[in-house]
Design brief:
- By secondary structure, this protein is α+β, with helices and mostly antiparallel strands.
- About 15% of the residues lie in helices and about 35% in strands.
- The strands form three sheets. A four-stranded antiparallel beta sheet has the order 3-4-9-8, with no helix packed on it. The chain has a three-stranded antiparallel beta sheet with strand order 5-6-7, with no helix packed on it.
- About 5% of the residues have low confidence.
Length: about 150
């Protein structure tokens, strides 16, 4: 009889299954709703960009309406908050998996330069909130003329 040091097909399958279970657990704990101050919530993903003239913040808020979201700018901090309410689950249906995250959220961004608070604009289109924050005139780069002597 020839003995092999290679694991059997059964032990290999069991190892793969255990690995898959561990990865499922790791991923589900990573994407689990955040808890802060006793409130279950979530953090919508954002993109922040900057040009010479302004900052732009884009926030993914699928399923929310503009009335569900609050945007404030105070002391150089942009705060975007709101709540995605859970859909009513029916007793007539048996849910096998619920991955959508519900609850309150708040994103606070500190802006690095003075901004023109009076000219801030917020638009909501296809589940994306875009906030445009113009920089103040003193914060915009200015070309300095070089004089020859």
């Amino acid at each position: 009889m020839v003995r092999s040091n290679a694991p059997s097909t059964e032990s290999t399958a069991r190892g793969v299954s255990n690995f898959q279970s561990e990865m499922d657990h790791l991923l589900s704990s990573f994407f689990r709703p955040m808890r802060q101050e006793g409130i279950t919530g979530w953090l919508p993903p954002i993109n922040v960009s900057e040009s010479a003239a302004d900052y732009e913040v884009a926030v993914e808020l699928p399923g929310l309406s503009p009335e569900d979201v609050n945007v404030e700018l105070h002391d150089g901090r942009l705060t975007i908050s709101g709540e995605r309410k859970s859909e009513t689950q029916s007793e007539e249906r048996q849910y096998h998996r619920v991955e959508q995250v519900y609850g309150k959220f708040e994103r606070v961004l500190k802006l690095g330069m003075p901004v023109n608070e009076e000219a801030v604009e917020a638009n909501y289109n296809h589940g994306i909130l875009t906030v445009r924050i113009p920089k103040s005139e003193q914060a915009k780069p200015r070309r300095i003329e070089i004089k020859s002597t």
